[in-house]
Write a structure and sequence with these properties.
UDP-galactose 4-epimerase, domain 1; about 280 residues; elongated; single chain; alpha/beta
Length: about 280
């Protein structure tokens, strides 16, 4: 429930602040300290209690009873008729895979920042999502080439022409950038974290083939779409505002990711096969 002097930033209540960001903040607060039925929110901060009520008012949500518990916490009850199905709940503290949602992060000094993906940049690194149904380009290709090596396949098919370009940020650099922003950035304008370096899908596939040990042919299926021709971000504001600069070269980040994926697969197979694991 956080510290007792936590507040919502004042600019959230200023005229002209986007309603969708207010809603994102409300969703994040409820995901952290709200009840799963969507009817009550609990905080130990009197200031945050007042701010939360005002936020509800600005979003058109009806506040019912407000009471203080024996341990000094405030419990705010919301009227079900106005908030039904308006909040999506998840335990964001347990998530290891990034997605496109907006996160609300409260720092040690009670600053609140929003962090999210804008679909113009991809993460790369350990704990990426390697699901065949929902993975992004790098984990999808790592999985495809690794399995091709295991099967001894002579070729791997990749969608498109390979001419599209993408920008990738290693996960350690992304985390460091968020921390730097939380500690040093006090502006209202959004900042982009990235490398400023683009790589073609063709070059990416060739690098992944090399890292996974695949020596066969890469077959490009031109009947499949390339997607957006480019995806890149302007990182100049982050560099100017708090000195952000991604330190991990793409080739090194890719090498670490492939090594982690292979290690995770080996560990998974060892547990699944008691004979191979020696159990």
């Amino acid at each position: 429930m956080g510290s007792r002097n936590k507040r919502i930033p004042r600019f959230v209540f200023e005229q002209g602040f986007p309603q969708q960001l207010r809603q994102a903040l409300f969703d994040s607060l409820m995901a952290g300290d709200g009840h799963k039925d969507g009817r009550k929110y609990t905080t130990s901060s009197t200031g945050l209690k007042d701010d939360f009520i005002w936020l509800c008012f600005l979003l058109g949500k009806k506040v019912g009873r407000v009471r203080q518990t024996e341990d000094g916490c405030w419990r705010i009850y919301l009227r079900q008729s106005r908030i039904q199905n308006s909040v999506k709940y998840r335990d964001i503290s347990l998530e290891a895979v990034a997605d496109e949602d907006v996160y609300c992060i409260t720092t040690e000094r009670n600053h609140i920042i929003f962090a999210g993906r804008n679909n113009k940049l991809n993460w790369i690194g350990q704990c990426d999502n390697f699901s065949p149904q929902s993975s992004h380009v790098i984990p999808a290709l790592i999985k495809k080439f690794t399995e091709a090596v295991e099967r001894g396949a002579p070729s791997v098919e990749v969608w498109g022409t390979g001419r599209a370009t993408r920008e990738f940020l290693y996960v350690d650099d992304a985390a460091e950038g968020v921390v730097q922003a939380a500690e040093s950035y006090d502006g209202r304008e959004p900042v982009n974290l990235g490398t400023g370096v683009e790589i073609s899908i063709r070059e990416l596939a060739e690098m992944i083939a090399s890292e996974t040990g695949f020596g066969g042919e890469i077959v490009w299926d031109h009947s499949k779409p390339d997607g957006q021709p480019r995806r890149a971000v302007d990182t100049s504001r982050a560099a100017h505002a708090f000195g952000f600069c991604a330190r991990t070269q793409f080739a090194e980040g890719l090498r670490r990711t492939v090594r982690w994926y292979k290690g995770a697969r080996d560990a998974e197979f060892a547990v699944a096969d008691p004979v191979a694991s020696g159990y």
